Amino acid sequence: MSDPIEQRLRNAREAWDQSLLRPILDLRRSLQGKGAERVARQAGAELQGAQFYLTHFGARFVLELPGFAPPEGIEIPTATQALLLYYLVTADGAPLSERWVGFRELPGGSFYHEAFQGYAGNRLAASFGNALPAFEQACRTLGGQKSSIAETAFRFQAFPRLPLLAVVWAGDEEFAPRGAILFDSTACHYLPLDACAIVGSSLVQRLIRAGEQLGKKPSSTSTTPLTAME
What secondary structure letter does DSSP report for 188? Predict the structure, then answer.
């Protein structure tokens, strides 16, 4: 007999995937009108003949022209396809500022900051705030690059021109541990705001999962939003 909670989660995932089918078709039509070379140049993607290559958190995905769909025989999860297409449609080639900002500083982000912090930064703090070596190990396992912005900060490439920064500050007798996911200030030149939130929460989930696999059992009881595209 199946677990009722697992079944509800499975049903929610299937409903979410179904809700993405129409947006995916619309995004593909939009891309076909922009021209593949222009899209590749602005997104930092690689175009080889009819094959369009794009990296997402270190994984390399291929879409086939002219429809920007996976080639026959290659499966990409529906939610991941949507993220790839949103990135390609939104990317305008703006130079990165190399200025890190919180979610609230992105255009329109102040209204959703508390929610994002709840399922992103707060989860990092709860999971790794008292175990910084485990955080560093999880970051390095996922290919994160140490950043000088803070003692325990690591940079990740969500997409070729969309870097993220994961930061954890240890707690002490006076202050509780803190965590944050930071964005380059140009992030909304490459993804819509809600997709930025999804990518940020996805990185947190990846780090927590890496910590579990490395032998640390995170204490956070929060759950990733069902809208997460991972």
Answer: G
Helix H or strand E encompassing 140: helix 132-141
Please, which residues have CB within 8 angstroms of residue 204's CB and are 6 or more apart in sequence? 119, 120, 123, 124, 166, 181, 224
Q: In the structure encoding, which two tokens stand for residue 76, read together?
A: 């990409």
Q: Which residue has the tokens 């709840």?
A: 118
Q: What DSSP letter does each residue of 18-87 carry, written as one string? A: HHHHHHHHHHHHHHHTT-HHHHHHHHT-EEETTEEEEEETTEEEEEETTTTBPPTT----HHHHHHHHHH
Mean pLDDT per segment of 10 residues, for the chain of length 230 residues? 57 67 91 91 95 95 94 92 96 96 96 92 92 94 92 95 95 84 98 94 93 66 38
CB atoms within 10 A of CB 76: 18
pTM: predicted TM-score of the whole model, two decimal places: 0.86
Say if residues 17 and 227 touch (Cβ distance below 8 Å). no
Q: Which one-letter DSSP state was computed for residue 169?
A: E
Q: What are the structure tokens assigned to 50, written together?
A: 């009819």
